[in-house]
Each structure stands twice: as C-alpha cells, then as structure tokens.
Amino acid sequence: DGGITQSPKYLFRKEGQNVTLSCEQNLNHDAMYWYRQDPGQGLRLIYYSQIVNDFQKGDIAEGYSVSREKKESFPLTVTSAQKNPTAFYLCATLPRDSPNYGYTFGSGTRLTVV
Amino acid sequence: AQSVSQHNHHVILSEAASLELGCNYSYGGTVNLFWYVQYPGQHLQLLLKYFSGDPLVKGIKGFEAEFIKSKFSFNLRKPSVQWSDTAEYFCAVNAGNNRKLIWGLGTSLGVNP
Predict the structure, then answer these.
(1) Of the candidates A42, A92, A103, which has its C-beta nearest B105's C-beta?
(2) Closest CA to A47 of A92, A112, A103
C-alpha cells in the first residue's frame, strides 16, 4: 500500500536528550513537511523540503533539525534546545505536479518529555 | 501576513442538526482551499478541496463547502450530522502557488447521539 509511515507512534524522552522521529513515504512525492500539533493551536510548520538535499525552516524551527538525504525519508530531530517538545508531530507529503491535490498525512508521533 | 480564521473553536450538536463551520482567509490573490478532518485517534484526512470551477464543492461523507470570493470565505456545511462526525475540523489555504499550507486553529465538533 502506498502511504506515509511515521515511527514510533509514541515516544518518551528525558529532558536534555535529543530524539529522532522517522517519516518514510512510498508515494514518490517530492515535498515533505513536518508539523507540530498542540491543542487549540492547530498545525504549525516546523520544516519542509521540496527536493532531496534541500529543506527550509517553517514557522517554529528553533530546537529542531531535519535532513533529506533520500526522497523517501525526512527524519526530524527534536533537540534538547527545544523548550517545550511535548506534542503530536505530523509528517505530510505533496506531489510535485499536483499541489492542488492536498497533503497526505502520516498517522503521527506523540512525543512526551518525562 | 496571510492567515486563516476559524470562527468556532468548539461546537456541540445533536444528531440530525445542521452544521456550518466558518472559515475566512486573508489573501487577495488566487487560492486553493481545503478542509481536513481528524477523527479521534486517527490521522488527518482530506475532506474536500477547491481550486477552480464550481464554488460549491462536495466532499466525502455528505460534507460540502462554498467558496465565496467576495467574502474570503470557505464555510463547511452538512445538512444532518451524525454521531460519527465527532472530530476536529481544520480549514487550510494554499495561497499564490506557495507549496505551504496556512492552517486555521481547528474546530472541535461533538455530536450527541
């Protein structure tokens, strides 16, 4: 089946630790996005990548880092510099030629700092 | 700056009631408009979209939305809601061929059986 796989579904992190969230897609979509979802705040864009080896900061990039070494993969690292990392993280993709189609979303990773 | 405003943060209805969720955006040029739905414990799904043509668009599960350019609005409607429509609804706008979406804060809909 084509789709987006985010792993793990639940993740617990101790304060001061870096943690990496995985996003893999087999849709052959060019663009990939990371969003953070908090109650009452909607979706906020962290980073996005239009093509391999290129990515741009979104609205709340501080404390996060990404890489895009392969078309299929766009991992997000939540660093210890992120002051309030507990949230629900969503990965999305968009095909190059059909921006009007809308995003496809993964099922998300819920990160909790303990 | 471009923005999307959803007027209702929480809505509670009884089954069979009619639904209208407001969405307004701020951008004067060409826009593509989306409504997404997130059912409890599930991922975001595209409910419907508008990018050209008939301003009244129909989506899945009996939902529809009307694009009114003069009002910068894209309100979501359903004539008769069901308990299974309990979910969070997000309006989003893609403005000026930008490949980023601008999101509203979402509306939480609860439907009482």
Answers:
(1) A42
(2) A92
